[in-house]
Structures are given as structure tokens and as C-alpha cells.
TrEMBL record:
Name under which the protein is recorded: ABC transporter permease
Topology relative to the membrane: Multi-pass membrane protein
Residue stretches making up the ABC transmembrane type-1 domain: 83-282, 362-552
Pfam families, per database record: BPD_transp_1
Main location per the UniProt record: membrane
Keywords: Membrane, Transmembrane, Transmembrane helix, Transport
InterPro entries cross-referenced by the UniProt entry: MetI-like
Region (Disordered): 1-26
Compositional bias (Basic and acidic residues): 11-26
Keyword Transmembrane: yes
Protein's cellular compartments: Cell membrane; Membrane
């Protein structure tokens, strides 16, 4: 008999929902939407609060600090002289630094140039060490008791003043032009060079009709960038400017020497106007610059070899600059072991003992800079995400405030912070926190640009897909965006440390007797003629900078591409 199977049907259980209630998936969706809004709101509040408090408020306070009497003193001859000197040295140093920077970048982009490793090191040194160290070294080499002027040539002359300042700023800031120009010169297609050769053009015709026109937008960008650094330079004019007064130093004299903060604010605003104009022009140039012109297919052909005469001329000029750079940094090292520079050349360790006595200042520089680098890196990554991955109100303003500190002179930042945070409700003057935060502000623009460049290379479809799969905004940020931003994180972290430890003009107004830093200590010692002690502290600060970079390179290896030279 055939067997029969009896199936039992179990009725489906149904849960009764209260009238007006929503399904579980809708409730989960609403909870996730609420959580995402809280996440974005928290990030926006952090970025907006940081930029408003540390950038906008001090800047606006500085603009409204001078009264009518202070503004009326703009007609004083001293102010007019400082303004004229700032323009003269700004134009001269910007042009010469950009020319030298272009020559270095052009040589580094050519495979047939010998000694490129040496040239690369020469272009890196001023980027890693404090810029005013060059001014200190020129004093040791070309001052009245200088090694070259007095000891070797027997001359009772000095390069103090306009000539020395022009030389120092050229050597201190040409690496910025090199860093800006090198990618463009590398990306100019070799096919164009060979095509011009086939047309019978000489090297000079190719250089004039092909290389320069294609590189012109970047050259203009380098001019504007170097110009902003030159006219706001403080350390070098203080050390070797002598009677050649510029606006940054005059503002320092008014604030520290005469306690006339109204007049100091006027001078800072007067200095801020040209830097802001250069900054706005630079942003416009970068926005309109076409990447297609210089970054298309370069072809498989190597660059056309340079004529022998061009190679010899290029190596001669850059060789002289390199020798001068070696003398400059060598004099700092030798000076730290010399008993009395220009008078007693016997060796001593006294200056290193002085540096050890000032070890708290160097330690503070290292500790505060590391802390500032961490805060800067996290803040800039969050800011880049908020501005370029959300649609919150005020993104344009946050973007502008994040890059604005690159246009504000360091002297203006220091004085504005001294005025803004000297009294309640936010009294930070005399604390370590104000030094860390001002370092953060000085380093924010570069860290932010690095983060923006990286985040724009990440397709929005990646985080959109994760969101479609149910990931919350916080999970997308932590598990997807931040790992993909690892390169920007390491670059911003190391650059932030180097930039912070070498900051001078913004922090010199904010140090207190109990909390000193290495960079202001070097300038103060040099101003009082204690050259040996100044070189000892300078050498110690450079050792810390190079050690930090070396540790980062060992830890990160090829992932660290701080300067693409």
C-alpha cells in the first residue's frame, strides 16, 4: 500500500502593530539618519568653532584694535620708510628666490644633470631647518668679524642691511619655488622637446617657446607664494636687517619695545593688505590653471639631452649656491664648537652646555610641535571631509578660513592673539596651550590643502556605496575615509611638526619666562651678541628637527613623501 505523508501546516504568526506605528526597518532608518546628523553636526561644530575662534576672531579683533589717532600716524616718516623698504626687499628677494628655485627645479627634472642628489639635499635643508638660521650663518660668515670678510679677506665690512637681507631671503626661500615648480617641469612632455628638435629649433628656442609658456602659470604661482613669505619674514630682518627697517620688524618694535599695540596693529594691517592680495591672486591662478597643458601623456621618450654649454652653466651656478649653502650650515655647526667666533677659534663645548641649559626650551619646542602636529592633522582631515563630503551650510566660509592663515603675517597672528586671549573669558597668555594652538593655526593651511587634494582623489561612490549597504556616517569616516587618507595623514603630521618647531614670528610674542621655545631663544641670544650660545641652541634645534624627520622616515618608509624633490 502506498504510504501517505501527512503535512501539518503551521499558521504564520503575525505581530500586531499599534495603530500609527512604523515597521522596524523604518525605525532603524530613522535612527541611522538621526545618528548621521549628530555625527555631521558634531564635526561641523568642531571645525567651525576651531576656525572661528582661532582664525576669524583674532583677525577681526586686530582690524578693530587701532583708533583714529593710531591710523593718523601712518603718515610718519618711519612708517613710510618701513613700507618702502618692505616693497623693495620683497620684490628683489621674490624675483631672485624664484629664479634660483627655477634653476634648481629645472636641473632636478633633467636626468642628464650630474649631482642631482646633492642639489636635492641643498633644496631640502632650508625647508627642514628654521629660515632665520640662514641669517645667523651669514652674520658668522660676512659680518664685521665674519670668517670670510674679516678672517680670509681682512676687510672691515659687513653685509648687514639691504644686501645681506636680499642674499639671506634668496637662499632661505628659493626651495619653496623649487618645490612648486618641479612637478610641472617633470610633467612637460619630452615628445614636445623632440618635436621641436625635428623642426630645427635650438635648445634656447625650445626653452623659450615650449618650456616657459607651459610652466608660466606655475612660475606665477611660485612668485606669489615666495612673495608672501618674503614680505612677512621676521627672523632674518631682525638678525641682519640692521638699520633697514621693514614692517614686520617695526610692528615688533612697537608692540614689544614701546608697548604701543595700536600702532603695532596698524602696521600689521598695512602688512596684511599686500599678503592678502597675493593670496587671493594665487588662489585665482590655481583655480584657473589647466592641468591638461602640463600633465598629459609625456611619451616613452626620455627628455632631450641638454647642450654641454647649458649643463656646464647650470652646474656652475647651482654649484656656487650649493657651496654657499654648505658654508652656511657648516658655520652653524662649527660655531657651536668655537669659543669666540672671530676672536678665539679654539674648540669648546661651552656652547653645547649652554644649549643643554636651555634644554627646556628645545624640549618644549619638540613637545609642543608634536602635539600641534597631531591636532593639526586630525583637524585638517575633519575639515576637508566636512567641506568636500557634506552639504552643510557655510562650507565656503570654512574653506576660506582654513587657508586664510597662510595670508596672515606671523607678526600679525602673534600680536592679535596677545590682544585677544590676554583677558577673560579666554585668558590663555602665558600658558603652554596658547603656544600649541598658535602652532596649529600656522600649520593648518598646508595640512588642509594636502587633505583636500587626497580626498578629491577618492570617488564619492565609495562612501555612497557603504551608506547604501547600511553603514552609518561615523562608520564610513572611521573605516573607509580615514584609512584612504593615510598618505595625507602622515604628510600633514610630519610637515606640521617641522613647521611648528621652526615657527618664530607668531610665538615670539606669546612666550613667557617659565615657558620658552627654541626659535625665540636663538634670536634673543643673537640680538645680545651671544653668537656661540645662539649657534649651540640653533644646532640643537636642527638636530631635533632632523631626528624627528629621520624617525618618521624609518617608521613610514616610502609612505612618507613630504617633499617630492
Amino acid at each position: 500500500m502506498p504510504s501517505t505523508t501527512q503535512q501539518t501546516v503551521v499558521p504564520e504568526e503575525r505581530t500586531e502593530r499599534a495603530p500609527g506605528s512604523r515597521p522596524d526597518w523604518q525605525r532603524r532608518s530613522r535612527r541611522r539618519l538621526l545618528a548621521d546628523r549628530i555625527t555631521v553636526g558634531t564635526l561641523v561644530a568642531y571645525v567651525a568653532g576651531l576656525l572661528l575662534l582661532l582664525v576669524l576672531v583674532p583677525t577681526v579683533a586686530m582690524l578693530f584694535e587701532p583708533d583714529g589717532e593710531a591710523w593718523s600716524r601712518l603718515a610718519e616718516p618711519r612708517v613710510a620708510t618701513a613700507a618702502k623698504n618692505t616693497v623693495v626687499i620683497g620684490v628683489a628677494s621674490t624675483l631672485s628666490a624664484t629664479v634660483v628655485g627655477f634653476l634648481f627645479a629645472y636641473a632636478l627634472s633633467r636626468p642628464d644633470i650630474r649631482g642631482r642628489a646633492v642639489l636635492r639635499v641643498m633644496a631640502l635643508l632650508p625647508l627642514i631647518s628654521p629660515p632665520f638660521v640662514v641669517g645667523l650663518a651669514v652674520l658668522l660668515l660676512f659680518g664685521r668679524r665674519g670668517l670670510i670678510t674679516h678672517e680670509l679677506l681682512g676687510l672691515d665690512i659687513s653685509l648687514l642691511g639691504l644686501g645681506g637681507l636680499w642674499l639671506v631671503q634668496t637662499l632661505a626661500f628659493f626651495p619653496m619655488a623649487t618645490l612648486t615648480l618641479l612637478p610641472t617641469l617633470k610633467n612637460i612632455g619630452s615628445t614636445l622637446e623632440w618635436a621641436s628638435r625635428d623642426l630645427g629649433w635650438t635648445w634656447f628656442q625650445t626653452f623659450r617657446r615650449v618650456t616657459l609658456p607651459l610652466a608660466f602659470p606655475t612660475i606665477l604661482n611660485a612668485l606669489l607664494l615666495v612673495g608672501m613669505f618674503v614680505i612677512t619674514d621676521f627672523g632674518n630682518p631682525v638678525l641682519i636687517g640692521a638699520g633697514y627697517q621693514v614692517l614686520s620688524v617695526e610692528a615688533y618694535v612697537q608692540a614689544v619695545g614701546r608697548q604701543d599695540f595700536g600702532m603695532a596693529a596698524v602696521l600689521c594691517v598695512l602688512l596684511f593688505v599686500p599678503t592678502l592680495i597675493l593670496f587671493l591672486i594665487q588662489r585665482r591662478v590655481l583655480a584657473r590653471r589647466s592641468a591638461v597643458t602640463v600633465s598629459g601623456k609625456t611619451g616613452s621618450l626620455p627628455p632631450a639631452p641638454l647642450p654641454a654649454a647649458v649643463r656646464r652653466g647650470l652646474l656652475t651656478v647651482l654649484g656656487l649656491v650649493s657651496v654657499l649653502m654648505i658654508l652656511i650650515y657648516g658655520s652653524i655647526l662649527v660655531g657651536s664648537f668655537t669659543r669666540a667666533w672671530g676672536a678665539d677659534w679654539s674648540l669648546t663645548l661651552n656652547h653645547w652646555q649652554t644649549a643643554l641649559l636651555r634644554g627646556d626650551d628645545i624640549r618644549n619646542s619638540a613637545l609642543f610641535s608634536a602635539t600641534a602636529a597631531i591636532i593639526t592633522t586630525i583637524s585638517t582631515l575633519v575639515a576637508a571631509y566636512v567641506v568636500h563630503r557634506t552639504r552643510v551650510f557655510g562650507r565656503g566660509m570654512m574653506d576660506g578660513l582654513a587657508v586664510l592663515p597662510s595670508a596672515i603675517p606671523g607678526t600679525m597672528i602673534g600680536i592679535s592673539w596677545l590682544l585677544t586671549f590676554n583677558e577673560p573669558p579666554i585668558a590663555l597668555t602665558g600658558t603652554a596651550l596658547i603656544l600649541v594652538l598658535v602652532m596649529v593655526v600656522r600649520a593648518i593651511p598646508v595640512g588642509y590643502r594636502t587633505a583636500v587634494t587626497t580626498i578629491n582623489q577618492i570617488s564619492p561612490s565609495i562612501d555612497e556605496a557603504a551608506t547604501d549597504l547600511g553603514a552609518s556616517r561615523a562608520r564610513v569616516i572611521v573605516q573607509i575615509m580615514f584609512p584612504l587618507l593615510g598618505g595625507a595623514f602622515t604628510t600633514s603630521l610630519v610637515f606640521g611638526f617641522l613647521h611648528a618647531i621652526n615657527t618664530l614670528s607668531a610665538v615670539i610674542f606669546l612666550t613667557s619666562p617659565g615657558i620658552g621655545l627654541g626659535a625665540p631663544t636663538i634670536v634673543n641670544l643673537a640680538e645680545f651678541g651671544q653668537w656661540g650660545a645662539a649657534t649651540g641652541v640653533a644646532a640643537g634645534l636642527m638636530v631635533v628637527s632632523f631626528a624627528g624627520l629621520a624617525v618618521a622616515k624609518l617608521a613610514l618608509g616610502s609612505r612618507l613623501r613630504l617633499y617630492d624633490l
